[in-house]
Design brief:
Order of helices and strands: HHEEEEEEEEEE
Number of strands: 10
Strand content: 25-35%
Structural class: alpha+beta
Shape: elongated
Low-confidence stretches: none
Largest sheet: 10 strands, antiparallel
Mean pLDDT: 86
Radius of gyration: 21 Å
Length: 173
């Protein structure tokens, strides 16, 4: 009985160790990618090749350029994984010309692809209460609507998001 328990225990420990080593390898890979991306940005700055402005990047991905407020601090794009991180000086709120309001955390993250920003963290919109925005999509280049997913997928006029707005700081996101 003792041998069986020892075998089960060592099998369990071995399995747990493999999982931990796999997690460590994933973390190291992620850190390596982030360092490489930041090094590229530093080299581009030193060479005099500044990164694109965020509105230009959004426009290239067929998203409205005013999706984020004017007062962003900077953004990071991990092109290999399509991860976009937008940094703001503080949590803030912007109102758009369609009457909608969006709140942004100090850092907004999401996965950027053609016509979509998905898996968003750090963005809310006001319905009756503040609801977490998980995705923003545009169906086609000629579409006059954007689809905002905040619990449910709802259309909004694209032209309301064509110009970046000034955001006002808020106490809490």
């Amino acid at each position: 009985m003792e041998k069986a328990m020892t075998k089960v225990g060592s099998f369990w420990i071995s399995k747990k160790a493999k999982k931990e080593f796999s997690n460590i390898a994933d973390d190291l890979s992620s850190i390596s990618g982030a360092v490489e991306e930041k090094a590229k940005r530093v080299i581009d700055k030193l060479k005099g090749n500044p990164p694109k402005a965020l509105p230009d990047l959004l426009r290239e991905h067929n998203l409205p350029p005013g999706l984020f407020p004017r007062n962003i601090t900077c953004y990071e794009l991990d092109a290999s994984r399509s991860k976009l991180v937008v940094h703001l000086p503080s949590a803030c709120e912007a109102s758009f010309k369609d009457g909608s309001a969006v709140r942004y955390a100090k850092r907004v993250k999401g996965t950027l692809s053609r016509g979509k920003l998905e898996g968003i963290e750090g963005m809310k919109t006001k319905v009756l209460v503040w609801v977490k925005v998980t995705g923003v999509a545009v169906e086609s280049h000629k579409s006059n609507k954007i689809w905002v997913t905040a619990g449910v997928k709802k259309p909004r006029p694209r032209d309301a998001y064509e110009t970046a707005r000034d955001a006002i700081p808020v106490d809490e996101f």
